[in-house]
Backbone:
């Protein structure tokens, strides 16, 4: 569970940053706060990043729900699949609220048709291997967003999500027979790199 | 190549004529037979495959809607969006609209790809020449919507050298090499992949492109118009749309036609033959999950689970389930 951020902290950070929006821990429920009704906007480039992340979280949730339905993993791995699924759903809620907070309708489950390579869900190993690769891409997308967005007050929240995605990378890499961690500095992806990588899994 | 492009130019001429000329003359039904269908130009290739006896007028859905409102003698409107039929329905010009297919936005470049475009983001590079449809027609409004969602509209618009009256015109410009890239529907690419290269628009930025149709209220051929709509919605009609690059309204559910062998002991491998196995997420025997292997869209194998009892084999994909009896033992 994430440590909650108080409304006061949100507003304080927002005021310091001079921007309108914040993203915080999932425990808060609604994560978007507006410092002033007159400034409920985000730069176009930031909105694009957030839309991309919404799409990434929908993909991750779809993948984990499908993996759980396939029921091909042992109980220990299944427990982590369930936890990762819950994490991704909470991430989705967070990033989707950034959009809804500025009056933009976020994509929802069913808006995007996903597809996976044959055999993705056939075995525990194939599920873990795919999860590790997917999470690496999503981590790169978050790191790229943190670097690329202009609204400073969004960065901490996105970094917290990225930290959780990195945990997913570590666990599923090990579950797939690889090393839990290797790089001191995981690779960030530009928005076009992240977009192209994630789009490989859309129908 | 020229023979392939000629139809595009012909379509472009028709579209320009429709856009500029308002209501067209009533087609000679006695010569053509069937009913008169006004349809978005993205359906130029597909509708005659469903019924060649109808008389079709293809063009911008927006312009066609205006023509019907002004009294053009159409029996059915088939629009590349839901908004035009909805507004005509609200005005009493057409009966209640029905959704009948979906599409996706795509970027096409000439096969030679002179600008070296590999991603939609490359369209922001200075000097790239782009064709798009005017924002007053559905494909043009979808284009602007996508570019805004990706945060690159300003940069891309700076490279737009022509705004066309339909997707068909955009395809023609790209196929002739007059521009480096154009925004069209995926179905436009599927019609002629020989001279075009597809650049995907990311799913996270895709608009919801749903097509809707409606019987024109004043049509004297109500029964025939409704029969046509049923034909479009039939499995055969939908299959023709899918074959031409459109998306089905809903993903198909699986079906099971054959189980071989019809019984088996735990650990045995069983082959299922059926349809729509792509995307299968679970196979169970009497509710017990079975390990399965996807072979093809029509074949699956699974291993009879150790704790399984006789009952139903159930195959599940994201759209639904199919079941058939199976004996363990």
Residues:
């Amino acid at each position: 569970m994430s440590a909650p951020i108080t409304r006061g902290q949100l507003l304080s950070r927002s005021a310091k940053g001079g921007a309108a929006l914040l993203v915080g821990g999932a425990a808060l429920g609604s994560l978007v706060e507006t410092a002033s009704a007159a400034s409920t906007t985000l730069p176009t480039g930031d909105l694009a990043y957030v839309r991309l992340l919404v799409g990434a979280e929908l993909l991750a949730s779809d993948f984990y729900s499908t993996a759980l339905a396939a029921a091909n993993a042992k109980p220990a791995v299944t427990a982590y699949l369930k936890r990762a699924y819950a994490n991704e759903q909470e991430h989705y809620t967070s990033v989707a609220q950034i959009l809804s907070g500025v009056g933009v309708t976020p994509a929802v489950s069913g808006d995007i048709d996903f597809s996976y390579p044959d055999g993705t869900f056939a075995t525990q190993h194939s599920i873990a291997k795919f999860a590790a690769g997917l999470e690496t891409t999503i981590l790169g997308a978050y790191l790229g967003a943190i670097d690329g967005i202009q609204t400073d007050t969004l960065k901490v929240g996105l970094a917290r999500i990225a930290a959780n995605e990195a945990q997913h990378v570590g666990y599923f890499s090990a579950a797939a027979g690889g090393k839990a961690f290797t790089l001191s500095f995981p690779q960030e992806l530009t928005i076009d790199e992240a977009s192209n990588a994630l789009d490989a899994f859309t129908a | 190549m020229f023979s392939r492009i000629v139809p595009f130019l012909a379509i472009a001429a028709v579209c320009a004529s429709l856009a500029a000329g308002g209501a067209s003359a009533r087609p000679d039904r006695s010569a053509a037979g069937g009913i008169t269908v006004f349809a978005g130009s993205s359906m130029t290739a597909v509708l005659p495959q469903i019924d060649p006896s109808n008389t079709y007028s293809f063009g911008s859905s927006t312009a066609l809607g205006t023509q019907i409102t002004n009294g053009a003698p159409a029996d059915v409107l088939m629009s590349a969006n839901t908004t035009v039929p909805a507004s005509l329905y609200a005005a009493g010009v057409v009966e209640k609209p029905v959704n009948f297919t979906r599409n996706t936005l795509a970027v096409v470049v000439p096969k030679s790809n002179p600008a070296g475009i590999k991603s939609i983001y490359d369209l922001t590079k200075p000097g790239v020449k782009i064709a798009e449809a005017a924002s007053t027609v559905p494909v043009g409004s979808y284009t602007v919507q996508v570019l805004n969602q990706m945060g690159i509209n300003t940069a891309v618009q700076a490279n737009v050298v022509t705004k066309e009256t339909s997707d068909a015109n955009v395809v023609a410009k790209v196929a002739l090499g007059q521009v480096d890239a154009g925004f069209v529907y995926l179905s436009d690419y599927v019609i002629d992949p020989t001279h075009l290269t597809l650049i995907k628009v990311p799913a996270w930025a895709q608009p919801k492109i749903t097509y809707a149709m409606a019987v024109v209220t004043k049509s004297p051929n109500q029964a025939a118009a409704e029969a046509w709509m049923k034909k479009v919605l039939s499995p055969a009609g939908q299959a023709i749309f899918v074959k031409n690059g459109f998306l089905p309204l809903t993903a198909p559910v699986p079906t099971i036609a054959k189980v071989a062998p019809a019984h088996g002991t735990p650990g045995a491998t069983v082959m299922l033959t059926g349809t729509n196995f792509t995307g299968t997420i679970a196979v169970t025997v009497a509710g017990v999950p079975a390990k399965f292997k996807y072979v093809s869209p029509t074949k699956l194998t699974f291993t009879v689970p150790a704790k399984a009892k006789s009952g139903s084999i159930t195959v599940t994909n994201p759209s639904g389930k199919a079941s058939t009896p199976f004996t363990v033992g």
User: Anything to note?
Assistant: The mean pLDDT of chain B is 86. Chain B is about 30% helix and 30% strand. The longest strand of chain B covers residues 320-328.
